[in-house]
């Protein structure tokens, strides 16, 4: 590896075993090798040249790379400008549990290189979340979006389970989110507590009932509670802890995006308590 130009950033999600990589190479990247995971990635820049399934492939920006477990492949730059990519490594057990279907047999990718802008977007989004967010529910939601977009490429269209309990599942999940607002609850735990067959069933039921995902709803009620506490004069750092935000800066970013002013500014407007850091707008 040319340390002056090449770089690899990797993060590991302990709960799922999933890894995410951002990498850039100027020339040769790696020799022929195999992984035990499902690889789903997107070329970010340059030309990504690789051999897979006995043929040479050339991936350009926005194209999606799909490699099955134990498929041999290599990698190098397709021209002098080098290439960059984002990649997610999905353990077999995670994908198997996520599909939860009755098709029988092992799934497989129809092609190792494809054009699917929605899948590319979900891969980028999931990589960003894995690198920058520690919240379990938002990580689960981002990874589930990748799995949902992968289904057509695996020949596994979604089959919704029959039953009339979707509204009850959504209601119980909503109540649990209110009761445990400050906890970092994961999608699997929330689904189990609400009586859903899986986190995927819960996500569909919740969206049907409330028009949004469980994570988005949780963020909305956290922000609403934060407004209430700030209006009483509670300091932003304490509010962040009380409402389940990672820290004060996390609260600040979310609050300003939702309401157009900082928590300190809102507190000052409500209580006339001055704060030298408060900024409106």
From TrEMBL:
One of its GO terms (molecular function) is sequence-specific DNA binding. It comes from the Bacteria. InterPro entries: AraC-bd, AraC_XylS_family_regulators, Homeodomain-like_sf, HTH-like, HTH_AraC. The keyword Transcription regulation applies. Residues 171-269 form the HTH araC/xylS-type domain. It holds the Pfam family AraC_binding. This is Transcriptional regulator, AraC family. The lineage of its organism: Bacteria, Pseudomonadati, Pseudomonadota, Alphaproteobacteria, Acetobacterales.
């Amino acid at each position: 590896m040319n340390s002056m130009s090449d770089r690899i950033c990797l993060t590991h999600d302990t709960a799922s075993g999933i890894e995410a990589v951002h990498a850039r190479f100027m020339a040769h990247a790696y020799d022929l090798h195999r992984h035990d995971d499902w690889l789903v990635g997107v070329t970010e820049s340059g030309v990504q040249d690789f051999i897979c399934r006995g043929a040479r492939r050339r991936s350009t920006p926005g194209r999606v790379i799909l490699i099955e477990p134990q498929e041999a492949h290599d990698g190098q730059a397709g021209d002098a400008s080098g290439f960059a990519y984002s990649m997610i490594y999905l353990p077999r057990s995670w994908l198997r549990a996520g599909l939860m279907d009755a098709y029988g047999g092992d799934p497989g990718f129809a092609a190792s290189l494809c054009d699917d802008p929605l899948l590319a977007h979900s891969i980028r989004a999931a990589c960003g979340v894995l690198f920058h967010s520690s919240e379990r529910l938002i990580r689960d939601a981002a990874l589930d979006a990748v799995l949902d977009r992968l289904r057509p490429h695996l020949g596994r269209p979604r089959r919704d389970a029959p039953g009339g309990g979707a509204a009850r599942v959504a209601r119980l999940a909503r109540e649990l989110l209110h009761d445990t607002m400050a906890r970092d609850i994961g999608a699997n735990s929330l689904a189990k507590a609400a009586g859903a067959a899986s986190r995927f069933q819960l996500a569909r039921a919740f969206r049907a009932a409330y028009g949004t995902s469980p994570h988005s709803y949780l963020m909305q009620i956290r922000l609403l509670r934060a407004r209430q506490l700030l209006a009483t004069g509670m300091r932003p750092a304490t509010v962040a802890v009380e409402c389940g935000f990672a820290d004060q800066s996390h609260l600040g970013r979310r609050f300003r995006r939702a309401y157009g002013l900082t928590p300190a500014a809102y507190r000052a407007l409500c209580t006339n308590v001055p704060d030298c850091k408060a900024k409106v707008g």
